[in-house]
Design a protein that fits this description.
It is a single chain. With 315 residues, the chain is α/β, with parallel strands linked by helices. It has a single domain (3-160, 173-236, 277-306), classed as Class I glutamine amidotransferase (GATase) domain (Rossmann fold), CATH 3.40.50. 30% of the residues lie in helices and 24% in strands. Strands 1, 2, 3, 4, 5, 6, 7, 8, 9, 10, 11 and 12 form a twelve-stranded mixed β-sheet that branches. α1 packs across α3 (47-58). The two termini are 32 Å apart. The active site is at residues 142, 235, 237. Belongs to the MetA family. This is Homoserine O-succinyltransferase. Substrate binds at residues 163, 192, 249.
Length: 315
């Protein structure tokens, strides 16, 4: 089934060239289907690249998904044209009184900034709180996962001496959760961050369950007991060149970054990256949409009070 996106969104041409099923608003208006309503709060500097990455994953599910794009503020973006932002993005005031089946909040290049020093910290806290009453399930990625764990559960990250960059092996620490259906016992995922959560604190928190973790990269997937919040500490949406592009950007800025681990062939940045996480990323988003959004959300989105937590086989 397709992802429904605004007419003329630049990502459409890219996704169609990859045979990913997307549908324009005009075409979708003629279908009598109750699609999933998903809101994406895009905090990344290059909006179009991140849109495309996420829509690629959403387009790999059997559900029709209507997507709205949300911006955190109306300040001019250095990497995305103001025309693109004004044409395709909504402000929070435009969605405040709406309900959504799902919400995805992306990472942000703020890994070394204290949360309270982030210019839009008060605003994003408001969105975090709003999501707990207006969205069936929220997928927090990387920085957003750390920020939401801090605001919603009082757990703070710890800053790393060096950036955690690369593709790391992860293991399931729990079984029988629908989110993990189809997962291999060992799988790979990209990370690119300056901080990480304390695994022991996450395990000890009564409202959270650590589902997967890495000996090197720490906790990766953490689920709230009411299934409303899924925290993913890495970047399952990243494409083949993303870590390479970040590495070359840092090199060009004279930052002397370490070579991303387990990413380039033979760990040689002059060779091509090896992709080993795309199947996992697609499965993660498909399982989230199916089991934690579609299976839980009310048919009438106005009736968010009707949502009851799904109880897994282990709970």
């Amino acid at each position: 089934m397709p992802v429904k996106i605004p007419d003329n969104l630049p990502a459409a041409e890219i996704l169609e060239s990859e045979n990913i099923f997307v549908m324009s608003e005009t075409r979708a208006a003629n279908q009598d289907i109750r699609p999933m309503k998903v809101l994406i709060l895009n905090l990344m500097p290059n909006k179009i690249e991140t849109e495309t990455q996420l829509l690629r994953l959403l387009g790999n599910t059997p559900l029709q998904v209507d997507v709205d794009l949300l911006r955190i503020h109306d300040k001019e973006s250095k990497h995305t044209s103001i025309d693109h932002m004004n044409n395709f993005y909504r402000d929070f005031e435009q969605v405040r009184n709406r309900n959504y089946d799902g919400l995805i909040i992306t990472g942000a290049p703020l890994g070394q900034v204290e949360f309270e020093d982030v210019s839009y910290w008060d605003h994003i806290r408001e969105i975090f709180d709003w999501s707990q009453h207006h969205v069936t399930s929220v997928l927090f990625l990387c920085w957003a996962a750390h920020a939401a764990l801090y605001h919603l559960y009082g757990l703070n990250r710890k800053l790393l001496k060096n950036k955690r960059s690369g593709v790391f092996s992860h293991m399931r620490t729990s079984e029988h959760y629908p989110l993990l259906r189809g997962f291999d016992e060992e799988f790979y995922a990209p990370h690119s961050r300056f901080a990480e959560m304390d695994v022991e604190q996450l395990h000890a928190h009564p409202a959270l369950k650590v589902l997967t973790e890495s000996d090197t990269a720490g906790a990766y997937m953490v689920l709230s007991n009411n299934n409303r919040n899924l925290f993913v500490m890495g970047h399952p949406e990243y494409q083949k060149s993303t870590l390479k592009d970040e590495y070359l950007r840092d090199v060009s800025q004279g930052l002397s970054p370490a070579v991303p681990q387990n990413y380039f062939k033979n760990d040689d940045p002059n060779q091509q990256p090896i992709v080993r996480w795309h199947s996992h990323g697609s499965l993660l988003v498909s399982n989230w949409l199916n089991y934690y959004v579609y299976q839980l959300t009310p048919y009438n989105l106005e009736d968010m009070s009707g949502i009851t937590p799904w109880e897994s086989e282990t709970q």
